[in-house]
Amino acid sequence: MEIWKEVKNLPYKKCFGCGGANEIGLKMEFESNQKEIRSFTHIPEHLAGWSNLAHGGVLATILDETMAWAAIYLERSYILTKKISVEFIKPVFVGDNLEARGHILEKISAKEVLVYAEIKNANGVVVAKGEGNIALFTPESIRKFGFLEEDYLVDFEKVVLNQ
Q: I need a labelling partner for 47 at 20 to 30 A (CA). Which of 41, 53, 65, 68 fits?
């Protein structure tokens, strides 16, 4: 039996993908079995593309967020996405229940991983998949960019990177 445990996040984050404080975001939450990461989500109506189809950019966001959290959690690292490729396989409709899963395919170097993610519909059919290169950063190296406040960095390290 697989054991999945919650991946902790900061509740006040405003990230469009995983931020609980973003009123119009996806509010993705993750769990892990220590080999991969997963999230159960759906596309809200305000993120539709054509008619009642989910917008492809939103599906790409779900894949990117899943790959990012695979790297954050499994590598216990700050990250930035370097490159992403997405393949849309089947239509996804607004309101569909989805499961996104991601894992690390290869550790390219101490500073980069190749990751994979896929989205399945409620019938277990893969509807989209993607690969990406994720840059890894130490707490010291991410601070050099200067785009994150120190309080946020301290909370992220305490809650997310040290779980």
A: 68
